[in-house]
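Input set for joint prediction.
Command: fold jointly, output tokens.
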Amino acid sequence: MKYGLISDIHGNLEALKKVLEILSEEGVDKYICLGDIVGYGANPRECIKEVKKLKAVCIAGNHDWAGIGETDIEFFNPYAKEAILWTQQELKKRDKDYLKSLPLAKVVDDFTIVHATLDEPEEWKYFYSTYHAHKNFQILTTPLCFVGHSHIPIIFLEKDYCTYSKTSELQLEEDYKYIVNIGSVGQPRDGDPRASFAIYDNEEKKVVIKRVDYDIKTAQEKILEAELPPILAERLAFGE
Ligand code: ZN
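tokens >
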């Protein structure tokens, strides 16, 4: 089975469509979405519609919860807060019902998916260190886990001790456990503005993190037209 994995779309329809084009060309059998479909970008409804069309196995992110008023936005930065208040107005009942239906974590086949961390997923914490990754490895029940949230692709791996790698191609080895952050489709933050996503082939036991250029200019124009904070448009060009 070939899985196409996407995360942190954040209402960026241009990035999502380009990524889905590539995943379809790659002959993906099943789609997985790691949350944050909405927030920041100008097309939250359209992105939810695309994810639903894929019949993707999807979990909730903090912006999805914020979009339906399920999480406190007090700690969101001012731009994120403004964007989420705008998103709350944009979403129709059917969009909110969909976001509400999403679980926080799930085991699919031989891997686990969670937006933030396995310990207290509803706290939306970040993996800052191998120390924190190690804590998550201790509660991980599958050899592999996919996460999003930080918008920065990185792979944590553990056998006798925990370490990390920035490689984009990972051949899984027995006795190892892996937590793979697949980066963000709609708002990359690792200095590379290209959309980030992943493919997992569970027969070849291989994970590939991919990047693709998309129509950033149109995504930016839509953000400005919607009168969302201009910085949300600007940052897309820098991947920050
Ligand atoms: Zn996000």
